[in-house]
């Protein structure tokens, strides 16, 4: 699993990192309500330099789905640098 | 400001859109700045009800600060979605209608809560609309109406002492409106701000609360080589230095112009530089394009000592704590040194490219204030005089001779409405010579003035070098036949000149005249005020049975004013 993702999830949702598994869903986490979800999405976007489509956002309500979406969205950094945030 | 001083600062967020998400950014920013704050978050577009209803949960929360954040798209949706469906006159009328509603809300809120500082954010409106070129080429124009609305908000802010304006349009312009907004958050969560904008609003709000709380830094300490000019003093000839209208020299020249402007805003300037004194001084005094000259600096250290030692000396010379300083140096080595040795100094992260200095300086919020006072305008002169006094102290044969030579005159007058904001500011800013460190806002000062059981005096000091203005504030509260010293403070500029003794002698005489039995003072320790821990016992006050409390028995004890200060008092 992506370490940066685990760190963000742990920080935003106040979860110990060992509890963050792909099976974990929003319904199981108290702070993962609709607001916590947006906060999480915005932090992920900032860290990975990407932007989700508005209609994808409400669907990404488990760690597994977040992981999957990162795989399809993130360009692997060519030279180890962080990908540049796309201008809106 | 730190949590050790008091309970959390209560901050309310009210606005025209969903603020819960923003509140998380604000809470995080307060934590990052190590300010203990508690938040109230108004409901979606509930700001009118919150401010109108005297029993609203907002009023029951008793905030110390309120951010009122209203988006132009929420207040004037038709300006964006149907600008051609309204006549010019309709638009102007709508703006005036909204402004009078706002004025009513703000006046109500300020009257109901004199202790609340209301921060009114000006409205942000998209830079471009569906009108395209019709915007400024036809009567359908909307931008000028938005500008009028924001100008009206500023008038409201200027008319009310506890209302202030937060320039969000300026912040949005700096960031770019395309980054400021995030339509996804509007459609998914009815939030008008993007992630980046929420970070910025949180930063602005917390910096503004700091500025209103008296956390303004007072002195900018500058390096010289590659900071004020490009090149090395003593190495490069005068005409080889980059400074002036040519090429990159303009970056240094314009940087100096901004520094001079900061000085006009009441910020002291100092030099902390590793150089031969004579080489650097030649540039400062002779270079044709230098804007800042020797007399612009309140303290100068140009030598080969390490910069930490110099910072300590500057701090002592100016009588300012390390948390009053901002340090600007192009050398990462020196910045790291100051940052690690003197963490209370704000060390600016200076960009490697001098063409960015101007932006870096103008974006700094450490020098923010919401109102310039006479004190701010004359601060530089006062600190220069202080340095002259210091050199006299060194040459005088005895302390007594030094005090006499100063020809000090103190004028003590009762507090008045006109002095309320100045007195409030002094209580907010004085950390060292302050027995109780009670912070009062102007509204609370006015309450004290109206209250018969309290008395408030201010002390102004002048000497042969000039006037220092108000340097002392004392608040007395009568209880059970005693006078309690609620507040007793002196500006750090006059510490060590026996002014406190003259002031307390006057107060004890007043207390006795009004029939009080004892004058009772307390020392409430903070990390900054240890210099006054022994004040009361040193003047003959006796310990009471309460901890940190001392009393002067007015029947058996009198306090004499030092003979070298001429005291006059103006009565009510």
Structural account:
The complex is a heterodimer of chains A (88) and B (572). Helices cover 42% and strands 0% of the residues of chain A. Chain A has 88 residues and is mainly alpha-helical. In chain A, helix 1 (3-13) runs antiparallel to helix 2. Chain B is α/β, with parallel strands linked by helices. Chain B is built from 23 helices and 18 strands. In chain B, helix 1 (20-32) crosses helix 12, helix 6 (88-112) runs parallel beside helix 8 and helix 18 packs across helix 19 (399-406). Chain B starts with 8 loop residues before the first strand and ends with a strand. At the A-B interface, helix 2 of A face helix 1 and helix 11 of B.
> Mind telling me the C-alpha Rg of chain B?
27 Å
Please report the distance between the alpha carbons of the first and last residues of chain A.
Answer: 28 Å
Report the structural category of chain A.
mainly alpha
Average pLDDT figure of chain B = 92
What is the number of helices of chain B?
23
Radius of gyration of chain A: 13 Å
* Total helical segments of chain A: 3
Class from secondary-structure proportions of chain B: alpha/beta
Q: Total strand count of chain B, please?
A: 18
Average of per-residue pLDDT values of chain A: 84
Low-confidence sequence ranges of chain A: 76-84
The N- to C-terminal Cα distance of chain B equals 34 Å
Shape of chain A: globular
Strand content of chain A: under 5%
Quaternary status of these chains? heterodimer
Helicity level of chain B, as a percent range? Answer: 40-55%
Strand order of the largest sheet of chain B: 16-17-15-14-13-12-11-18
Which H/E pattern describes the elements of chain A?
Answer: HHH
How much helical structure, as a percent, in the residues of chain A?
Answer: 40-55%
